[in-house]
């Protein structure tokens, strides 16, 4: 027999999610209307443009990742790397993994800053190590000796 408080909580949760879906459907319908209006305006001012060829642009919000997600992705990239990577290389791979626009220079700079912060924190914790790379670049890799020690509990 189901517990009444569990059933009540599940009903409430279902109602919340259903309401959120309705709100999102309404928002999508409005965005479609807005997009159609812009397409009509483009046809007036630039009839030669085929609007369906305009690629969507996605900008991540300032808090685009959950707490710790950036670090997990960065460490995953380093774990799979065959050689040490620069902060910029890690950022480019992160952008690619997240399905963001790799040709957006501002996004690459922003992600490189965030990746740099995550890598420095992990270096302080002994998880990664950095060596001087070409020019001003640092090369990052997992500190395998530290990782083995941490796994063994020493």
Structure characterization notes:
The chain is mainly alpha-helical and 154 residues long. It is built from five helices and three strands; from the N terminus they run H-H-E-H-H-E-E-H. Strands 1-3-2 form a three-stranded antiparallel beta sheet. The radius of gyration is 23 Å and the shape is flat. The N and C termini lie far apart (49 Å). The model has no long low-confidence stretch (mean pLDDT 85).
Describe the secondary-structure layout.
Elements: H1 4-45, H2 69-80, E1 85-86, H3 87-97, H4 105-124, E2 128-132, E3 138-142, H5 144-152
Helix pairs in contact: 2-3, 3-4
Rg of Cα set: 23 Å
N- and C-termini, Cα separation: 49 Å
Mean pLDDT: 85
Percent helix range:
55-70%
User: Could you give a short account of the major beta sheet?
Assistant: 3 strands, antiparallel
Shape: flat
Low-confidence segments? none
How many beta-strand runs? Answer: 3
The percent range for strand residues is: 5-15%
Main β-sheet, spatial strand arrangement: 1-3-2
Q: What is the number of helices? A: 5
Give the helices and strands as they follow along the chain.
HHEHHEEH
How does the helix and strand content classify structurally? Answer: mainly alpha
């Amino acid at each position: 027999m189901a517990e009444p408080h569990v059933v009540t909580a599940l009903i409430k949760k279902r109602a919340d999610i259903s309401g959120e879906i309705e709100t999102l459907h309404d928002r999508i319908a409005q965005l479609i209307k807005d997009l159609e209006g812009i397409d009509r305006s483009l046809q007036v001012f630039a009839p030669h443009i085929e609007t369906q060829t305009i690629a969507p642009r996605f900008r991540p919000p300032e808090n685009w990742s959950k707490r710790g997600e950036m670090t997990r992705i960065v460490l995953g990239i380093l774990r799979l790397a065959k050689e040490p990577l620069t902060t910029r290389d890690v950022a480019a791979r992160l952008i690619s993994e997240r399905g963001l626009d790799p040709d957006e220079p501002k996004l690459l700079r922003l992600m490189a800053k965030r990746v740099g912060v995550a890598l420095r924190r992990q270096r302080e914790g002994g998880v990664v190590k950095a060596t001087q790379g070409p020019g001003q670049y640092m090369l990052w890799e997992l500190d395998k000796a530290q990782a083995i020690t941490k796994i063994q509990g020493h």
